[in-house]
Amino acid sequence: MALLPEKATHQQTRTFNQQLVLRAIYDRNETSRAELARLTGLTRTSVSALVGELLRDGLVEETGTGPSTGGKAPILVRVRPDARHLIGVDLTEPAFSGALVDLRGKIVRSIRLPLEGRDGPEAVQVVMALIDALANSNGTSPLLGIGIGAPGVIDSRSGTIRWAVNLDWADLPLGQQVEQRYGLPTVVVNDSQAAAVAEFTFGAPTRPRNLVVVRVGRGIGSGIILDGRLYQGDGAGAGEIGHGIYGDPDPDAPPERCRCGRVGCLETLASMYAMVVAAGRSDPAIVDAPSLVAAVRAGSPSARAVVVAAGRRLGQGIAALISVLNVNEVLLIGAATALGDVWLDAVREQAAACALPQLSRDTCIELGAARDEDDVLVGASALLMTRELGLSLAR
Ligand SMILES: [Zn+2]
Questions:
Q1: Sorting pLDDT into bands at 50, 70 and 90, what band is 395?
Q2: CB-neighbour burial class of residue 66 (10 A; exposed 0-12, middle 13-18, buried 19+)
Q3: Which of 57, 84, 228, 285 has the most CB atoms less than 10 A away?
Q4: Coil, strand or helix: which one is 209?
C-alpha cells in the first residue's frame, strides 16, 4: 500500500487553491475575480467559489468597483487586515514583551512584563501571563495563533527550546505547552531568526531573495534567508555563529567562560556586552551600551580600540557565513549598530580579509533598517502566518 494517496484528496486541492487565491489577493492588495483567474490559472467558476468561501470566513471583503475594461465594472476584493489577529511574543531579556498583530504586521496592542531575575518554570509562568493578557485584550477578531521568538537553540518543528541558558531552559516543550493551554497553533523560533524575517519583510522595499541578518546585542546570532524563506538547517540552529570559535584565541583576553560553558566563543569577544566589559577595564565610566557608544563618538582611543578588535572578530565569523553561503547581502542589526562606522569598517575589513576575494568582493555588509524593538515578535508572527495561511507577511 502506498504511504500517500497518489492523487491529492479533494480537501487538499481545495485548501491549496484557497491559499493560492488568498495569497494572490494579499499580494495585490486589491484585485478582481477576473484578474485572480488570470493570476492563478484557475477557472472563473473556481475563483468565484473560492472567493465566496473567503468572504464567508471574513478573511476578505469587497471594497467597491475597479475601472471597467469594456463590460461591467469589476468588483474588487481585498484581505481584511484585522480579519485575524496573531499574538507575537519576544522572550529576549530583561523583559518579555508581546503584542497583538494584524495580518499586515501592524501592532494593535503591546505589553511588556519585566522578568526580574525569574528563570526556569517561573519564567514560563511569565510567558503564560503575557499571552493571557493579550488574549483577554483581543476584541472580536479571531486569533490565528501564537508566534514566539526566544533566545537559544530551538527546534521549531516540535516547538522545543533545546537550550536557553540565561532562562535556565533545557528541552522545554514550550510550543506544545502553549498550544495545549490556548488551543491555538504556535510557532517557536530563535530570536535572531525571527528578527531576520522582520528585517527581510519590513526593511528596504527591494530586498534580495538571499540575505543574512546578523544581530549583535547582548549576544550574537544570525538569521539566514534563502530564496525568500528562513533557512533553519537540520537542527533549526542555522546561523548560530555566536558560539562558534573563529581564529586563534587572543593571548591577552581573559579566559572568561561563555554562557555555553566553553571558552573563546565569538559572543564572548564581539557582543555588545563583551565590548562594554572590555572597554570598562580601562575606562570605569563605561558601564553599559549607551556609555560605550558615547565614548566611541567622543573619540576615546581605548574604547575605539576595543570596538575595532570586536568588529574584526565579528568579521571573521561573517566571513565563515560568506564562504559557506556566498550570499551577497549581509545586514547588521542590534544594539551594536549604534557604534557606527568605527565598528562597521572593522567588520567589513576583516570579513573581506578572511573570505575568498572572489566571494567577498561581491558581498555588501550594511546596517539593517532596524525597524524597531518589535522585530522579534513581528518576525515570529510572520512565520506563523506563513504556516497557517500560506501568506508571506507584506506591507
Ligand atoms: Zn558559547
A1: very low
A2: middle
A3: 84
A4: coil
Instruction: Please report where in the chains the cell 471597467 appears, as a residue.
Output: 68
Distance in Å, CA 259 to ligand 1 centroid: 6
> What phi and psi values does residue 123 have, to the nearest 5 degrees?
-70, -35
- Percentage, residues of the chain above pLDDT 90: 67
> Phi first, then psi: what are they for 92, rounded to 5°?
-80, 135
Which of helix, strand or coil describes residue 138? Answer: coil
Three-class SS of residue 153? strand
pLDDT one-digit tens code per residue, 114-157: 999 899 999 999 999 999 999 999 888 999 999 999 998 899 88
Q: What CA–CA distance (Å, rounded) separates 154 from 162?
A: 5
Å from CA of 218 to ligand 1 middle: 13
Q: How far is the CA of 266 from the centre of ligand 1 (A)?
A: 7
Q: Tell me how far the alpha carbon of residue 238 lies from the centroid of ligand 1, in angstroms.
A: 15
CB 239 within 8 A of CB 212: yes
Distance 92 CA to ligand 1 centre (A): 17
Ligand 1: centre distance to CA 274 (Å): 12
Pairing of strands 220-226, 160-164: unpaired
pLDDT score, position 252: 66
Residue 221, C-beta contacts closer than 8 angstroms, at least 6 positions apart: 151, 190, 191, 192, 193, 214, 215, 239, 240, 241, 242
As to burial, measured by CB atoms within 10 angstroms (0-12 exposed, 13-18 middle, 19+ buried), residue 118 is middle
The x, y and z cell numbers of residue 272, run together, are 555588545
Structure confidence by residue, pLDDT tens digits, 10-50:
888 888 899 999 999 998 889 999 999 999 999 999 999 99
The pLDDT of residue 4 is 46
Q: Is the dihedral of CA 194, 198, 199, 200 positive or negative?
A: positive
Around 117, how many Cα atoms within 13 Å sit in the side-chain half-sphere? 0
